[in-house]
Amino acid sequence: MLDDRKLEVLRAIVTDYVASREPVGSKALVERHQLGVSPATVRNDMAVLEEEGYIAQPHTSAGRIPTDKGYRLFVDRLATIKPLSPAERRAINAFMAGALDIDDLVARTVRLLAQLTHQVAVVQYPTTQRTTIAHAELVQLVPGRFMVMVVSSTGRVDQQVVELPGLSSEATATATGKLREAVVGRTAADAASRLARALDEVEPSTRAEITPLFAVALELLGAEPVAQVLVAGVPNLAGHSFASGLRPLLEALEEQVVLLRLLDEAGTDDVTVRIGAENTAEGFQSTSLVAAGYSVGHDHTASLGVVGPTRMDYPSTIASVRAVARYVSRILSEG
């Protein structure tokens, strides 16, 4: 067990190395931080930290750098997370509040996270298993031309125009009523099943008229993305070195299945930090992931986060990820 002074020395090493990218020496620590002890004492503490595997010496006559174990202890012992400034919160709120639908919201979220953290941002679409249909509508644009519209509880709007020159007003009213009754408040899968059964309940003569409309509605119910992940900020990796090289990481960032596994392993309602080898997803063993879940109401819906080098500003990154996840949850719940 490390005493408080050694933990403070480790904190100072992590802070200085993240800021400078240069190995940290005992003299520099004493000059920059109010440690209250001599450089000799700091060197002794650093020797203990190195022996315990929390820091390492990259080459002879150099200072020390944190190891994955050191970063892990640093994150676990964070007493406070750096709060976002009022200006940062206002900027997030303004940026996110302008979202038009779920696609726009996810796109804005991934761009915002990349800008705030200067890392690679990954955002998962809300999972369709928890998404329900909030509204369904059949709109006559002009005689013989109709728009079928399906709106999910996440705000996603899917719509398609269909040409039906001979559709009667009676058949239109029947189709609208059956459509809403079958799908509103249900998941897409349940809605599709009920919509197919609802068609069987219609008189044969009317059924023939509205079948094309129901076919379009069924197509729209299957249109919502399933377990899709958006990525932004890949250029932020430039200038960083990774133990396994940059190419495996870039290839992994292009694989939806790998990204989903990464987020599924880490994403919870609160912030989760995975460092180095703690990330078991292929291609990410030399990176750190800071992730959080977002939700609609009280149900965890999907996850978002950032990926970057283990040498990252953890307090600021954690604060940014947590704040953005909460904003997304609030927007989805209010929508």
Automatic annotation (TrEMBL):
PANTHER family: HEAT-INDUCIBLE TRANSCRIPTION REPRESSOR HRCA
A single GO molecular function term of this UniProt record: DNA-binding transcription factor activity
Source superkingdom: Bacteria
Keyword Calcium recorded: no
Keyword entries, A-Z: Repressor, Stress response, Transcription, Transcription regulation
Protein name: Heat-inducible transcription repressor HrcA
Entry keyword annotation includes Transmembrane: no
Gene3D superfamilies: 3.30.450.40, Heat-inducible transcription repressor hrca homolog, domain 3, Winged helix-like DNA-binding domain superfamily/Winged helix DNA-binding domain
Domain HTH deoR-type: 15-62
Example of a GO biological process term: negative regulation of DNA-templated transcription
Heat-inducible transcription repressor HrcA C-terminal domain mapped to chain residues: 103-318
Gene that this sequence comes from: hrcA
Pfam families: HrcA, HTH_DeoR
Entry's family note: Belongs to the HrcA family.
InterPro entries (UniProt xref): DeoR_HTH, GAF-like_dom_sf, HrcA, HrcA_C, WH-like_DNA-bd_sf, WH_DNA-bd_sf, WHTH_transcript_rep_HrcA_IDD
Function: Negative regulator of class I heat shock genes (grpE-dnaK-dnaJ and groELS operons). Prevents heat-shock induction of these operons.
